[in-house]
Design brief:
Blueprint lengths: L1 H15 L6 H4 L11 H15 L18 H20 L7 H5 L19
């Protein structure tokens, strides 16, 4: 009986937890990375900055990251969109089911990505 009560309480608690905010709900001028959790935006940006060996101001206007004044920001957006399209079109994972295992079809290989799991295809 106690187990059932705990189960009911945990289900109710899960129902009341709000979904995390999306990046475009919390930050201004999000264009390419729409739909990712807001908490994943900074780690993705930090990964990109580290990969380029640059600081944030390489693409963003200092103290006004929402502005589109820098050409580098526009280029970065195009490159991110291109990468997402390549991933979507060429590396879509095949779902693993008993049928695909019998036929010898394996899922896509794991790969590093600068994007949070929520944006990977």
């Amino acid at each position: 009986m106690a187990f059932l009560a705990l189960l009911v309480l945990s289900v109710r608690a899960a129902e009341t937890v709000p979904a995390p905010k999306k990046a475009e709900e919390q930050f201004k001028n999000i264009q390419v990375l729409k739909g990712i959790p807001a908490e994943d935006l900074f780690p993705a940006m930090q990964f990109i900055a580290a990969s380029l060996n640059q600081d944030c101001e390489f693409c963003h206007v200092e103290r006004a990251p929402e502005k589109d004044d820098k050409k580098e920001k526009q280029i970065a957006r195009k490159m991110i969109a291109m990468t997402l399209a390549i991933d979507r079109d060429n590396f879509a994972r095949t779902p693993r089911t008993s049928r695909t295992r019998r036929r010898g079809i394996t899922g896509g290989r794991s790969r590093a990505s600068p994007l949070p799991r929520s944006r990977r295809t």
